[in-house]
Design goal:
4-stranded antiparallel beta sheet; 38% helix; alpha+beta; globular; single chain; 368 residues
Length: 368
């Protein structure tokens, strides 16, 4: 039970003013611009867009600035703003095979049609602090452009396995590309949840939580050893089909990260031995997130693949109900709100129990 705190309006106003001063910091230092945040803190912007379910780098940068770098608070701001936007309809499914690639790698095949494209990555850095970044000077030299122009339509790596029937089809038998897709932002999550809703939930889920669950699968909790079949990062076109036109029009481009994993599967009497898939896709440059997503996605498919549930990561209700950092924040932080009545009642109960215990001890001593 909550109780109203009387006389706190002035204190709350002062707290807001204090917060604004702390956010701004030393006024002798130039204020951060939204362009600086979106251009130089792009990974933070990507996470806020992905978990906030809204692709808008400028608004994500604004939320990060307003939240003083607290990304979960920034995600909360973006989600709250998102609820005020009108809904015109649903865009067509994006075609990541047509992605304008910044990065495309595979850990399963060295030589790929179109080649490996390393792109911007921390993978080959030494993880040593670069103190030249602390000096105000010229930025790094621009990267050298590749001599050959990248092909836009690059075949998927997993098709190399699919051509030999060594991996399950992308869509199970009987499912169609135009099958209705649920919308977690419009309808509450219900169990059991289809794979479409599970992937939406994981895409919006807290990166740290999803990463921990994915890590657990690699350490034996679900016996799920995976290979990264392909990671793609780049821009894809978004198309929309207005009812009054009856045909698709391109309305913009978005940056996405995509991961497909190749997972082991022993087969059965009805299904010959073949690999299975895990999948992850997210707004922005979120490579770590989509790899973890793909691991968790595969673990959650245990039932349809006839496996046993032996680990928390396979528990759909546990995973999906606790992955959302906004819900988690609200439930965890609500305990700092006034609970005076609740606590006083429990305090009185404990005092009464202690008094009864002491009285019984006194009676026993007197009887002896």
């Amino acid at each position: 039970m909550y109780v109203a705190v009387k006389g706190g309006e002035k204190a709350i106003d002062n707290a807001h003013q204090y917060l604004a001063e702390e956010r701004r910091g030393d006024t002798a230092i130039a204020e951060l611009s939204l362009e600086q945040i979106s251009e130089q803190l792009s990974h933070a912007v990507s996470r806020v867009m992905a978990e906030g379910s809204l692709f808008d780098p400028e608004l994500a940068a604004l939320a990060i600035k307003q939240a003083r770098g607290d990304l979960i608070e920034a995600i909360f701001l973006i989600r709250a703003y998102r609820t005020t936007l009108p809904r015109f309809g649903y865009s067509n499914a994006i075609d990541t095979a047509q992605m304008a690639l910044d990065r495309r790698i595979s850990a399963t095949f060295k030589d790929l049609p179109g080649g490996q494209i390393l792109g911007p990555t921390f993978d080959y850095t030494h993880r040593l602090l670069d103190f030249t970044l602390a000096a105000e000077g010229l930025g790094p030299a621009p990267a050298k452009e590749a001599e050959d122009t990248l092909e836009k339509d690059m075949p998927r790596v997993l098709e190399l396995l699919n051509n030999e029937d060594l991996i399950e089809p992308a869509l199970p038998t009987g499912e169609m590309d135009d099958a209705p897709v649920g919308d977690l932002t419009r309808e509450p999550l219900e169990f059991p949840a289809g794979r479409d809703l599970r992937l939406q939930n994981l895409a919006r889920g807290d990166e740290g939580f999803i990463l921990s669950l994915g890590y657990s699968t690699q350490r034996g909790y679900a016996r799920n050893h995976a290979f990264v079949g392909e990671i793609r990062i780049g821009e894809v076109a978004v198309e929309f089909t207005p009812e009054e036109l009856g045909f698709s029009i391109e309305i913009g481009d978005i940056t996405v990260s995509e991961c497909e994993t190749v997972n082991q599967f022993k087969g059965s009497k009805k299904v010959p031995a073949q690999f299975t898939r895990g999948y992850g896709l997210s707004f922005g440059h979120c490579e770590r997130k989509v790899i973890a997503m793909a691991l968790v996605d595969r673990a959650l498919r245990w039932k349809e693949l006839g496996e046993d549930m032996v680990a928390p990561v396979q528990d759909e209700e546990f995973v999906l109900s606790h992955s959302d950092n906004i819900q988690a924040t609200g439930f965890v932080e609500h305990i700092k709100l006034p609970h005076y009545v609740d606590f006083q009642s429990e305090l009185e109960l404990v005092r009464r129990l202690r008094a009864n215990t002491l009285e019984e001890e006194d009676q026993m001593e007197a009887a002896e």
